[in-house]
């Protein structure tokens, strides 16, 4: 695996966009190139959580530059993740296709806890804790992640709506006074209070800060001779300098880079709130961040150590899924998908095979809630639950496929759109569930085939087999009606 090609991660944060290109050296990414642009995307959110035109334009210009650098990269060697602003912006659905077109690669909008997991993955692979329990804190532009852990997987992950951009805009848009500093710290403490009890109960031996805010705070503290680590007295001292001067710019803080001036106070307020609410004594800065976690996650996937497989197995256990039944359905769904995907590329087939398999393995998680309409419960769980390794888009895809496994198809026409492989995935799982309803090992007769042409599906199967399985035969006939509701057809062609 040491000869893997170069890998690229794109981190679309609320404050900055980053492109990092690495060469994989036996599981250790070596940085080849690092490009950073201060896009300040969170600054473009209005009171209604709508992303304004200026910030969208800045984002697209940056992504176009990244896209130029990524020309020639294979899709499997690029992973682009987007964080809090993409999560909360109400008009992101119309912007996302434009962003993907500019970049030239899909963009995953990841959940807060998935962001926290990836941050921790970056830290744990680059920092030797010697088994000591760590508190990792990452102040971003629109959210702050808090993670506890000592091994490769974290024990606690949280993402709170605290960001250096959002707090700077909300509390420090004019003259900075003791009053608005106190207001910002109090507001941030109220958010952190939601997790403080359990985090303090669990405890930690080392506290690490990652990303731009922690880096700039640590740099200012060191430049001013206040120590080599972040401490509460040092934070308070720096804030007093800012208050005395009236603004961060006028304070002329040593060690503070010009591009951090506008967002420094917001990050400092969040940091002070965390120290006060969690009783943190000191915090060291660590260079690893989200982009590094993305690399190690990509390397894991290339090494067949995909966290998504682990998560799928954990969900099967949590929701008491019959693994024998799930495997039967997965195997048959895979066969049907392969039959339908004759015009797909190798990459397309591999991509969709993964999602159909995960959907099949998880298609019955909803039964743990209720058997009635269990497919709806399944879809809800897969869309809403924290699923480490899966992006929000991936979870939505799994939800769509599993929702279509049975029942009325009419409501799905709009969500599935016109993408053939998406319809093939639903058809493959739907038929697999239908054939496996006896929950027993099943062998389809030889020469059974499922084909599609111009939106018309046709299943060819031995007549004698259908005669021996009248319940399945009746269910197959009933399918025609469902597919006609979405402007498609399904027919059964019997072989002698």
Q: What does this 3D model show about the protein?
A:
The model has no long low-confidence stretch (mean pLDDT 90). Strands 3-2-1-4-5 form a five-stranded mixed β-sheet, sandwiched between helices. Strands 8-7-6-9-10 form a five-stranded mixed β-sheet, sandwiched between helices. It has a three-stranded mixed β-sheet with strand order 11-12-13. Helix 8 packs antiparallel against helix 10. The chain folds into three domains: 111 residues, ATPase, nucleotide binding domain (Nucleotidyltransferase, domain 5), CATH 3.30.420; 161 residues, Nucleotidyltransferase, domain 5 (2-Layer Sandwich); 138 residues, Hypothetical protein af1432. By secondary structure, the chain is an alpha/beta fold. 51% of the residues lie in helices and 16% in strands. The chain contains 20 helices and 13 strands.
CATH arch. level architecture of the largest domain: 2-Layer Sandwich
Largest sheet: spatial strand order: 3-2-1-4-5
Count of helical stretches: 20
Q: How many E strands?
A: 13
User: The CATH topology of the largest domain, please?
Assistant: Nucleotidyltransferase, domain 5
The largest sheet, given as strand count, sense and whether it forms a barrel, is: 5 strands, mixed
**What integer value in Å does the Rg equal?**
26 Å
What's the name of the CATH homologous superfamily of the largest domain?
Answer: Exopolyphosphatase. Domain 2
Given helix and strand content, the structural type is alpha/beta
Total individual domains: 3
What ranges have pLDDT less than 50 throughout 5 or more consecutive residues? Answer: none
CATH top-level class of the largest domain = Alpha Beta
């Amino acid at each position: 695996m040491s000869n893997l090609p170069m890998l690229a991660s794109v981190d679309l944060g609320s404050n900055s966009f980053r492109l990092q290109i690495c060469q994989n050296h036996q599981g250790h990414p070596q940085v080849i190139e690092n490009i950073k642009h201060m896009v300040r995307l969170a600054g473009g959110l209005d009171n209604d959580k709508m992303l304004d035109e200026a910030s969208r334009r800045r984002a697209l210009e940056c992504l176009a530059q990244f896209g130029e650098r990524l020309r020639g990269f294979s899709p499997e060697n690029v992973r682009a993740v987007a964080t809090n602003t993409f999560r909360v912006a109400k008009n992101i659905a119309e912007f996302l296709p434009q962003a993907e077109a500019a970049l030239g690669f899909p963009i995953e909008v990841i959940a807060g806890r998935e962001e926290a997991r990836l941050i921790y993955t970056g830290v744990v692979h680059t920092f030797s804790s010697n088994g000591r329990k760590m508190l990792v804190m990452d102040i971003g532009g629109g959210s702050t992640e808090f993670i506890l852990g000592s091994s490769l997987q974290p024990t606690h992950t949280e993402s709170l709506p605290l960001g250096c951009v959002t707090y700077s805009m909300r509390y420090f848009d004019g003259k900075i006074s003791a009053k608005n500093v106190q207001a910002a710290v109090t507001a941030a403490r109220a958010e952190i209070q939601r997790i403080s009890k359990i985090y303090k109960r669990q405890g930690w031996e080392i506290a690490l800060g990652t990303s731009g805010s922690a880096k700039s705070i640590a740099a200012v503290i060191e430049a001013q001779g206040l120590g080599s680590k972040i401490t509460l007295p040092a934070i308070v001292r720096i804030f007093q300098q800012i208050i005395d001067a009236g603004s961060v710019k006028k304070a002329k803080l040593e060690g503070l880079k010009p591009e951090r001036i506008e967002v420094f106070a917001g990050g400092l307020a969040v940091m002070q709130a965390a120290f006060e609410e969690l009783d943190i004594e000191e915090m060291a800065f660590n260079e690893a961040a989200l982009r590094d976690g993305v690399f190690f996650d990509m390397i894991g996937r290339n090494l067949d150590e995909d966290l998504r497989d682990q998560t799928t197995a954990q969900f099967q256990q949590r929701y008491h899924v019959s693994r024998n039944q799930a495997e039967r359905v997965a195997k048959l769904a895979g066969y049907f998908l392969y039959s339908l995907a004759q015009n797909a590329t190798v990459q397309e087939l591999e991509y969709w095979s993964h999602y159909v398999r995960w959907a099949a393995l998880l298609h019955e998680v909803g039964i743990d809630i209720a058997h009635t309409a269990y497919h709806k419960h399944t879809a809800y769980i897969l869309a809403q639950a924290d699923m480490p390794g899966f992006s929000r888009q991936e979870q939505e895809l799994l939800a769509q496929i599993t929702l279509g496994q049975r029942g009325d198809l009419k409501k799905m026409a709009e969500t599935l759109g016109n993408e053939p492989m998406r319809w093939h995935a639903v058809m493959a799982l739907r038929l697999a569930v239908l054939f496996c309803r006896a929950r027993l090992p099943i062998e389809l007769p030889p020469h059974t085939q499922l084909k599609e042409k111009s939106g018309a599906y046709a299943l060819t199967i031995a007549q004698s087999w259908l005669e021996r399985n009248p319940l399945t035969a009746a269910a197959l006939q009933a399918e025609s009606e469902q597919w006609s509701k979405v402007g498609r057809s399904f027919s059964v062609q019997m072989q002698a």
